[in-house]
Amino acid sequence: xxxxxxxxxxxxxxxxxxxxxxxxxxxxxxxxxxxxxxxxxxxxxxxxxxxxxxxxxxxxxxxxxxxxxxxxxxxxxxxxxxxxxxxxxxxxxxxxxxxxxxxxxxxxxxxxxxxxxxxxxxxxxxxxxxxxxxxxxxxxxxxxxxxxxxxxxxxxxxxxxxxxxxxxxxxxxxxxxxxxxxxxxxxxxxxxxxxxxxxxxxxxxxxxxxxxxxxxxxxxxxxxxxxxxxxxxxxxxxxxxxxxx
Length: 245
Fold this sequence. Notes:
This protein is an alpha/beta fold. The protein has eight helices and eight strands; from the N terminus they run αβββαβαβαβαβαβαα. Strand 6 (about 150), helix 5 and strand 7 form a beta-alpha-beta unit.
């Protein structure tokens, strides 16, 4: 038991890599209270149209609200709403990073959008990148009424990325959760991804229920999906969400 706990602590230090950055100049940041008396930082940009879609975004392991500001602005330019947050232990959020904390955080943000902002669930797209795909799949497995689930560069599980899925204490086992998802699923992955191999996206896609779409981004690595795909990135999303642009 002690060995398993120690291995889990080491795993968390490898999986979660928060930047020592409190982004003091970033405007529009809100603090959401958690039931455990902690809080998490969040930034919400409403959609251009009153009934437009909102992306609930879960970021990567070494990102925070400041480093993904470009993504928030880009989605806003395309007319989408965008709600991003920092996991516990990231940015201005309190606590220490852990899978349990991430699960707690993403559920809290869902309640913020649906209960506090009164946004109908069917207008919310659950969206994750890299590590954030674990959080996104978890949330999508817990609810049934979101618009869709979109995953960029996802993994089957964190230990699975390094071929150790059989080791006790695996984190974010999305391969087991994604069959439980009851909404349309889109997976996009670059075939030159050296961080999370392309095969992870394909394996998740095979396990995902219909309706689903796979976007094979030829020549893309891990961090340049949008830049490599260009306009096709937005065309794929719009077609998947059945939006006429």
